[in-house]
Amino acid sequence: MLDRARAEARLDDVVADHRFEIAVVFPAVGAVTLLASAWDLLPPFLSFNPYFILFGTLVMRLPLAAGLAPLVDRKAAVALLALTGYAFGIELFGVTTGWPYGDFAYLIELGPMLAGEVPLGLPVFFFPLVLNSYLLVVLLAGPRARSRILRLVAVAATVVWMDVVLDPAAVALGFWEYYPPGTYHGVPLSNYAGWVLSAAVSVALLDWGFDADALRDRLADCAYLLDDLVSFVILWGAVNLAFGQAAPAVAAGVLGVALLRTDRFDFAVLRDRIRSTRQ
């Protein structure tokens, strides 16, 4: 237990001391390298390098990992393991059958691939959609988030909204493709119905696994817990802008406004850090 406490404290210090690099620099560099890969501006060994993609993604997940680590007891660990199993199961089922997200296939290896079909690192791509949505709703809704029905509806809507940003950008980059291409920047509407299902399962597991009062207290005390959402807005908002996809870029901007309302990311500090890098 002591070793775990020390590890959590060390991780907390690393994330707190490097918020700008994790939440701003990594997604900005990620957006540039992904776009350069899509436009054939990088040498083959760097273009969409799966290990670079996975490494960058893991770094951007550090605020979530450090923020939630003190809350992960046995029950929460079981919930996260169940959510991991669900993520792999529904993705493999979806690739095989086309349900519930629509008929699609990965075109780029996003790290090692499980059964040659889905990324082995899938949880680090899947978890942010549901965890960030859950945390954002709990924070913005305040006492109203104690209502399970409101929480389910609001989290499901937020997950779908995040995927309104993510999926068109991923399709434009060539990460995956739907067959036939959908009406929304190549994404079918069935994909969003599938995410409603995934959000409902996720809310049920997170509600069961995490102590609600402890989670609210952690949200109040941990300034960086939503920094992963900052990374999401920067990375996928920039990619959508680069491809001229106005609707998902605006959707990313709406998430940015929601982040501003949480008053969690000190944009004055961000401004000062940007100025210091220019000097």
From TrEMBL:
Keywords: Membrane, Transmembrane, Transmembrane helix. The keyword ATP-binding does not apply. The keyword Transmembrane helix applies. The chain crosses the membrane at residues 20-39, 51-71, 78-100, 120-142, 149-172, 249-270. Signal peptide: none annotated. This is Putative membrane protein. It comes from Halobacterium jilantaiense. The lineage of its organism: Archaea, Methanobacteriati, Methanobacteriota, Stenosarchaea group, Halobacteria.
